[in-house]
Design brief:
The complex is a heterodimer of chains A (about 500) and B (about 200). With about 500 residues, chain A is mainly α. Chain A has four domains: about 10-85, no CATH class; about 110-265, no CATH class; about 275-445, no CATH class; about 450-505. Chain A has 22 helices and seven strands. In chain A, the strands form two sheets. A five-stranded mixed β-sheet of chain A has the order 1-4-7-5-6, sandwiched between helices. Chain A has a two-stranded antiparallel sheet with strand order 2-3. The radius of gyration of chain A is 34 Å and the shape is elongated. Chain A starts with 9 loop residues before the first helix and ends with a helix. Chain B has nine helices and no strands. Chain B has about 200 residues and is mostly helical. Helix content of chain B is about 75%, strand content about 0%. Chain B has two domains: about 1-105, no CATH class; about 110-200, no CATH class. In chain B, α6 (about 110-130) runs antiparallel to α7 (about 135-150). The chains are: A mainly alpha (about 500), B mainly alpha (about 200). At the A-B interface, α1, α2 and α3 of A face α1, α2, α3, α4 and α5 of B.
Chain lengths: ~500, ~200
């Protein structure tokens, strides 16, 4: 038995077991597949000639050691003849010059049928899987135009293939990029690809340049080279199904593809939020119930993450739906208890499902939902107004400001009292209360602003230039954005003062 | 091999070529191993035929033999490529374990043989300690075939087991014993923490 001191390496042991497994397995399915493939997908001329030359040399030359030169020449001639015979025994495809296909998920390259039509132009395509690393992003993509132009200005050359990927993934930053960490919103797409692969096949030129699907390809590369994805997810992202255009497809045909893929809506109707929310929460509850004993925070986090993955949403959204459904149910229960028609309650709750997200606005103890937990009178006021008076989510979002200010909270109570008799007047009162609450809020925030600005002037004025070196680009861009907008406000203020001064002098 | 058997094999090989089985197998391997290059698949098929000719023995299913050898060759080619990639990724020759594995495995064929022999003997020792004579014998045969890089079909295994155990053994039984033996072997080396558990649970 093993004495614990063996010198045999793990790799060699694993290799031997694997070899034993492979060599003793029945590969009948693969043999059958090979027979079919020989019939359906012969190699091209050059490949077949090389393969059969190798094999026939092995078969005919294995006992050639004692042969004379003449015999060898005769065998070589015989091999050449046999090779030509087998190569010529079947019609063979032209040599592939384009991006190479691989057989994957049981799909060998095949014609797309019916022949697809793009903006009234019919273009025959071949469908198959390719290794995503064999594709090079299209620099002429309209989304990329500005970034590519800026890159060329800065570097006096067009971006290389890997630089195009970096431009899309945000690791090379150009000015004017709105979201520097993910300028093309690739991360959510990458997560989706990791989960279920690329669903809509990009359309590529014969050589493999994507005329449609640059984002899908950049996102697949993000999965393939990212640290956050498992081996199975990387495998899913590596081989993607594409439609390959034939060699010689003209620019106007590609333009038709681009236009049809980017301008024509697929008329897909997304599920309403309340359906998604209810489904997610139902499943969330079920999974929580399946945990034996007390659920720890870590377990809850894990459940949320798994659920998010299964429903293609972010873990934070599970929480959001959970809260929304909780308040929607509370709202329904309140109105049913107060004798409202169940159908009307259901309709109101579903139609305004988004309001239950707005209801949770504010920070910490400022939140209206915190108050609603403990204050039934306030709950009655808010829920009644939500049912009969309010007509927008923005009003619900601002209710927390209103109830946090005694004066505006009083106006809200008045609106509630008036609600049955004069609903329009009640709505006006709510709007007034919101406007007042916002103004007061701004005023509160303006206290200390002057002091803050003075300290900022001191701080920035005394900052040595080399201190900026250590800041990351994202922060610098953010500072520049804020400063530019602040400068705009300052200029406007100064200019207005100048004109007031001019008027006063006049 | 008898003249009759030799003729039989030659005819089978000629038929495989006429029916263009080699190119079908290249295509099938491309599908089975999408990460491999066309050249890898062509190499693997050639290796299958070369080994079949070298084996120089009568066999019922030469297509299965070539396919099995080719699949094993693909696995080895891809493993070699992966190790090379890891070593290339590290400018100084890679982390120790990678350098170790790579160097032992590929750069010194004599050392390879010694290491593989050690692994084989070690496993045979483990198997010898088992009680079940049937599973033990089946596993020893499978390991011996693996050591030689020779495919061993369930029919062939059953035939040899019948000779050794002096009893009738069907292919299905041989397949079952082989599976149990390899599973147990894998479990023992995993439990002894000699290799990592990579099985799906």
């Amino acid at each position: 038995m093993h004495d614990g001191n063996t010198k045999v390496s793990a790799a060699t042991l694993a290799e031997l077991i694997e070899t034993a497994t492979v060599l003793s397995e029945d590969h009948g399915e693969l043999v059958a597949l090979a027979v079919r493939e020989a019939r359906d997908r012969p190699l091209n001329d050059a490949q077949a000639r090389r393969l059969y030359t190798r094999i026939l040399k092995i078969l005919r030359g294995h006992d050639a050691a004692g042969l004379s030169d003449g015999d060898r020449e005769r065998i070589a001639e015989q091999v050449r003849g046999e090779v030509e015979k087998v190569v010529g025994s079947v019609a063979r495809p032209a040599a592939e010059g384009g991006v190479p296909f691989v057989t994957y998920n049981g799909l060998s390259p095949r014609d797309v049928l019916p022949v697809p039509s793009f903006n009234n132009k019919t273009i025959p395509m071949v469908e198959g899987y390719v290794d995503v690393e064999k594709l090079q992003l299209w620099a002429g993509n309209h989304r990329l135009t500005l970034l590519v132009a800026e890159f060329e200005e800065r570097n006096n050359r067009p971006p290389a293939a890997e630089e195009l990927v970096k431009l899309m993934q945000g690791s090379i930053l150009m000015t004017g990029v709105k979201n520097p960490t993910d300028p093309f919103k690739l991360k959510p797409l990458a997560d989706s690809i990791a989960r279920k692969g690329v669903e809509i096949p990009p359309i590529v030129t014969f050589e493999g340049e994507p005329k449609d699907g640059n984002r899908r390809i950049a996102a697949s590369l993000l999965v393939l080279h990212g640290k956050d994805y498992s081996a199975a997810e990387k495998e899913r992202a590596r081989y993607i199904r594409v439609w390959r255009a034939p060699e010689g497809t003209t620019d106007d045909q590609f333009e038709a593809i681009v236009v049809s893929r980017n301008f024509e809506s697929d008329h897909k109707e997304e599920w309403p939020e309340y359906i998604k929310g209810r489904l997610v929460v139902q499943e969330y509850e079920l999974r929580k119930r399946q945990v034996k004993g007390r659920i720890t925070r870590a377990e809850l986090k894990r459940i949320r993450e798994e659920l998010a993955k299964d429903f293609a949403i972010k873990p934070g959204e599970v929480d959001r739906y959970d809260r929304m459904v909780y308040w929607a149910d509370d709202f329904s229960a309140y109105h049913l208890e107060h004798g409202r028609e169940p159908a009307a309650v259901r309709h109101k709750t579903e139609k305004n499902f988004q309001w239950f997200y707005e209801l949770d606005a504010g920070r910490g103890n400022e939140k209206l939902t915190r108050r609603l937990e403990t204050d039934d009178e306030l709950k009655a006021v808010v829920y009644d107004l939500m049912f009969d008076v309010l007509d927008s989510g923005a009003q619900v979002r601002n209710l927390y400001r209103v109830v946090n200010d005694p004066e505006t909270a009083g106006t809200l109570l008045k609106a509630h009292e008036l609600m049955d008799r004069e609903p329009h007047r009640a709505l006006d009162l709510v709007d007034d209360a919101i406007t007042d609450a916002k103004r007061r809020d701004v005023r509160r925030r303006s206290i200390g602003f002057e002091e803050y600005l003075k300290s900022m002037v001191d701080r920035l004025g005394s900052t040595p230039p080399d201190q900026w070196n250590t800041l990351d680009s994202e922060l610098l861009l953010e500072v520049r954005r804020i400063m530019e907008s602040a400068l705009g406000a300052i200029d406007a203020q100064l200019s207005s003062r100048r004109s007031r001064g001019a008027k006063a002098e006049a | 091999m008898s003249r009759e058997a030799e003729t039989h094999l030659e005819e089978a090989l000629d038929r495989m070529v006429q029916e263009r089985f080699p190119e079908g197998l290249v295509r099938a391997l491309e599908g089975r191993f999408p990460g491999a290059t066309y050249a890898d698949c062509e190499d693997a098929v050639s290796m299958g035929f070369a080994q079949l000719v070298r084996a120089d023995r009568r066999m019922d299913n030469p297509r299965g033999y070539v396919t099995t050898v080719a699949v094993n060759a693909m696995r080895r080619l891809l493993r070699r490529a992966a190790l090379q990639q890891l070593a290339d990724a590290d400018g100084n020759g890679g982390p120790e374990d990678v350098a170790d594995v790579g160097a032992d495995e590929w750069s010194d064929p004599v050392a390879d043989e010694v290491v593989a022999d050690d692994a084989y003997l070690f496993m045979q020792e483990l198997v010898d300690a088992w009680e079940s004579r049937n599973v033990k014998t089946a596993t020893r045969l499978v390991l011996a075939a693996a050591r030689l890089g020779e495919p061993l079909t369930a029919d062939e295994l059953a035939e040899r087991l019948g000779d050794l155990l002096h009893q009738e053994v069907t292919a299905a039984t041989a397949r079952q014993w082989r599976k149990r033996g390899l599973d147990r072997l894998r479990r023992e080396v995993v439990d002894a923490q000699l290799i990592e558990d990579t099985e799906e649970h």
